[in-house]
Amino acid sequence: MNGRLYLCATPIGNLEDITLRVLRTLKEVDLIAAEDTRHSRALLAHFDIHTPMTSYHEHNKYEKAEQLIRKMQDGTQIALITDAGTPAISDPGEVLAAACYEAGIPVTSLPGPCACITGLTMSGLPARRFAFEAFLPPDKKERRRILEELKKETRTIVLYEAPHHLADTLQELYESLGDRRMALCRELTKKYEEGIRMTLREAADYYQKEEPRGEFVLVIEGQNVKEAEEEKQAAFAEQPLREHLQTYLDQGLDRKEAMRCVAKDRGCSRREIYQALLSEEEE
Ligand code: SAM
Question: Model-level pTM greater than 0.70?
Fold first, then answer.
């Protein structure tokens, strides 16, 4: 019988946030794979858990996944814990979960603390639709591409950032996205937890002068939906009408359907598109 992988969420600052199910699972499994065994030893000692541990981190995530898979194929039950929060959210847990699926090993995720959701829910910004970007990529080109995408993002944006990069990232975000409402969620669930509502510009200015301390989640309001729609329509309006229509015809749509799509893109009626095409033909 195959073993199973249990993704166990652990506290992001407050030990009381561990769930009863995670505690029971950590006691019952054969092995705990931990991102940093030294750090996790303190957590396990606090809860009187003595299950054997092995390391699973960014620098061994592929080779070690293979070893752990072999163990699970031999029937070993493994729990994965990361430094804090929900495994697979912006940490190597996602590699192990994917490898389990490849190998036909069942994966269970035990819900619990996650900085993204904790920050989003306390931000007071719209939480119904959101885009979680985790850390912006360090590669400059890739970073620019993501920032370009985020400019047009109408959902609330949630980002992670380390304190030593915070000031530069806030400045970059302000320059790319413009001034928007945001919440800086700091030291979540810890003694000095703060949810500071500012605008991107205020936050960028503030951290040019103040040294950021602790862990941060940035929650930024998305682009205004009406504004995004107007920008999209303005971009379409610059394209010659026939060319615009042709892109849909090339996708295999019939003329009527293509005209409907063009009308929707340009924020007008199909009849108006029809008339405009007719008058272009007459010219
Ligand atoms: N797996 C984790 C989760 O479920 O949230 C995230 C891991 S990621 C490597 C670490 C980042 O999460 C930190 O740099 C910070 O941006 C955010 N974070 C973690 N704990 C936090 C806390 N207590 N307060 C604010 N942000 C936190």
Answer: yes
